[in-house]
Design goal:
binds magnesium ion; binds 2'-deoxyadenosine-5'-diphosphate; Alpha-Beta Plaits; alpha+beta; 4 strands; globular
Length: 135
């Protein structure tokens, strides 16, 4: 079934010049990028995006980080796109992410792990509604 997922190239990846590499991997896999925009998000959007983590000790740092510079937001679509993008991204902790995944190949810090991808179809639709309300 074709699905939609929200992908973010986080500010660390934009700063490091890895936006093109992330896009290349998504395209090479065969998923479609149907919306793409670079933007610097507000704290309000960041807090809504990460609302499920509001009670975690890392939440304040997470909001600071995701608003620390421009990010690139995308809607990615395709068969199994939610789980497929999680595979391309690798585990949340880059030190545990498999080599060959984006986090496994390019990151070491759990706080600055380069990419976001929705973890379920429902969360994907919620996050797409937040970033691309007209999509
Ligand atoms: P994911 O981004 O793989 O979906 P998540 O939803 O559990 O992971 O957490 C959201 C982000 O919060 C994650 O990408 C990085 C940050 N984070 C998670 N666990 C953390 C921790 N133990 N310390 C610092 N930051 C953390
Ligand atoms: Mg998550």
């Amino acid at each position: 079934m074709s699905e939609r997922t929200l992908i973010l190239v986080k500010p660390d990846a934009v700063r490091r010049g890895l936006t093109g590499e992330v896009i290349r991997r998504i395209e090479a896999k065969g998923f479609a990028i149907t919306r793409l925009e670079q933007r610097h998000i507000s704290r309000d959007i960041a807090e809504q995006h990460y609302a499920e983590h509001a009670d975690k000790p890392f939440y304040a740092g997470l909001v600071d980080f995701i608003t620390s510079g421009p990010l690139v937001a995308m809607i990615v679509e395709g068969e199994g796109a939610v789980a497929g993008m999680r595979q391309l991204m690798g585990a949340t902790n880059p030190l545990e992410a498999a080599p060959g995944s984006i986090r496994g190949d390019y990151a070491t810090s759990i706080g600055e792990n380069l990419v976001h991808g929705s973890d379920s179809i429902d969360n994907g639709e919620r996050e797409i509604g937040l970033f691309f309300p007209d999509a």
